[in-house]
């Protein structure tokens, strides 16, 4: 688990393709790895990766074909910058929100504009994720815990303050770029809970609908 508070910006130093999957060497720059062991997790652009080698100035991690196809790592090249965060400890300050490192989908930056010393972003999320995104709620973008300003359909808005711009890769993010999105894990569990006994059915689910809520007594009679 992670908090979405970025600890360093790393750089892809090498990529070894192996059929459909790949092995990445990520230099960690200012991120100390003294307390990291083989098998530990490090979030890279919001993707939970397992350290399989620790040469000293970075770590190697295997990235599956599934991860390459479903995340922005399919566009990553040698020299690309990535946001890094080590897995949280019981003593870690939870300054962001609970992040699993499991990317739910890819968003697209559709607008970037100046807002004083901050930068205002509009990001279009996949339609199936829109229901999990709410104004003033939390969302993880490329591993960064951020507060949603406003939501309009599948488009949500963010205001990125100078400190976050300086400490993450958002400073260089541009219109048209794909970003990894992880929605609030509580919203996902809540949806599953509201399905009630229907969650055990093997037939495809349509998610939480008004009819389902009414059937289970969550909506009062008018």
State the secondary-structure class. mainly beta
* Topology order in helix (H) and strand (E) letters: EEEEEHEEEEEEEHEHH
Based on CA atoms alone, the radius of gyration comes out at 19 Å
Approximate shape: globular
Multimeric state of these chains? single chain
> What's the β-strand tally?
13
Number of helices: 4
CATH fold name of the largest domain: Elongation Factor Tu (Ef-tu), domain 3
Strand composition percent: 35-45%
Biggest sheet architecture: 7 strands, antiparallel
Mean pLDDT: 91
- Number of spatially distinct domains: 3
Physical arrangement of strands within the biggest beta sheet: 10-9-13-7-8-12-11
What is the second-level CATH architecture of the largest domain? Beta Barrel
Highest CATH level, the class of the largest domain: Mainly Beta
Low-confidence segments, given as residue ranges, are: none
> How much helicity do the residues have?
10-25%
Report, as a whole number of angstroms, the end-to-end distance: 43 Å
């Amino acid at each position: 688990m992670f908090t979405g508070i970025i600890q360093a910006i790393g750089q892809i130093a090498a990529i070894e393709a192996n059929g459909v999957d790949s092995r990445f060497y990520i230099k960690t720059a200012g991120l100390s790895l003294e307390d990291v062991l083989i098998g530990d997790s490090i979030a890279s652009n919001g993707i939970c990766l397992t350290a399989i080698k620790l040469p000293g100035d970075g770590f190697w991690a295997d990235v599956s074909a599934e991860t390459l196809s479903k995340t922005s790592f399919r566009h990553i090249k040698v020299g690309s910058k990535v946001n890094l965060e080590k897995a949280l400890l019981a003593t870690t300050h939870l300054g962001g929100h609970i992040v699993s490192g499991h990317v739910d989908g890819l968003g697209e930056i559709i607008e970037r504009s100046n807002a004083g010393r901050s930068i205002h972003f509009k990001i279009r999320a996949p339609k199936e994720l829109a229901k999990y995104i709410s104004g003033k709620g939390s969302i993880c973008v490329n591993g960064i815990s951020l507060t949603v300003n406003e939501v309009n359909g599948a488009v949500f808005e963010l205001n990125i303050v100078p400190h976050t711009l300086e400490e993450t890769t958002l400073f260089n993010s541009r219109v048209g770029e794909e970003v990894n999105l992880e929605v609030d894990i509580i919203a996902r569990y809540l949806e599953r809970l509201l399905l009630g006994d229907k969650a055990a059915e093997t037939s495809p689910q349509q998610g939480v609908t008004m009819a389902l809520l009414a059937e289970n007594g969550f909506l009062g009679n008018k």
